[in-house]
Every structure is written in C-alpha cells, then in structure tokens.
Design brief:
Elements: E1 4-8, H1 16-23, E2 53-55, H2 56-60, H3 69-73, E3 75-76, E4 81-82, E5 86-87, E6 92-93, E7 96-101
Antiparallel strand pairs: 1-7, 2-7, 3-4, 5-6
Keywords: Hydrolase
GO molecular function: poly(A)-specific ribonuclease activity
Organism: Opuntia streptacantha
Length: 113
C-alpha cells in the first residue's frame, strides 16, 4: 500500500520517535525510554512496525552524481537527514520529516534545502 507519513514530529533524528519511523523499531535501551514515570510506554515489543518506511531526504541523497553534491552539504552525514528544518532563536535542528513506503513509491525530486 503506498503511504506517506510526513509532518512536524517535534523529534530530532536521535529520538525514539524517529527511530521507530526510520528503523521500524526502538531499542529498549534508548535514552528516551529511560524516563517513563507513569509507565505509559508499555512493553518494548509494541514499539515496532513492519512498514517499509524510509526517509525521503535520506534515500534521495544516497544517490550518485554531481547534482547531489550541493544537497549533501546540507545533510547531517551521521543521520542522512537535513541539518535543520527548524531555525528559531532557541532551536536549530531537524524536526520535520517525509517518510514513504519504499516498496511502492519512489522519490523523484525534493525541495531544495
């Protein structure tokens, strides 16, 4: 089933929500899960999914060619996400994402960063 999951997730690339979307699971030892005073997160087995989601910017910049050199300079090499999608006085970082099902959709182009 073709699917887009996109929006302002208020989560950085190192966060548990990003890991869940990008990797399909969250490591039970992830630091974001260490603080759960109300016990609302439940068992770690439920923090996973089988959707073949990939990040649009991450997948697009893995390509080869000189046309991709400029966009790569605006990407974080450790996460393959944009260096920032939000820039305010108090925060500069990535919180906005476009994920898609790689088995049924393909990225043809993206907005320039």
């Amino acid at each position: 089933i073709p699917m887009l999951v996109c929006g302002d997730f208020n989560s950085t690339p190192a966060s548990a929500p990003h890991a869940l979307l990008a990797l399909g699971k969250v490591d039970p030892l992830h630091p974001d899960l260490a603080v759960d005073p109300l016990g609302i997160l439940g068992p770690h087995t439920k923090r996973a999914h089988q959707l073949p989601l990939v990040s649009a910017y991450s997948s697009f910049t893995r390509g080869i060619g000189p046309i991709l050199e400029q966009p790569r300079r605006r990407m974080d090499p450790s996460t393959n996400e944009p260096l920032f999608t939000n820039c305010t006085r108090d925060f500069i970082g990535t919180q906005d994402y476009i994920f898609y099902t790689a088995d049924s959709l393909m990225v043809e182009s993206l907005l320039e960063l």
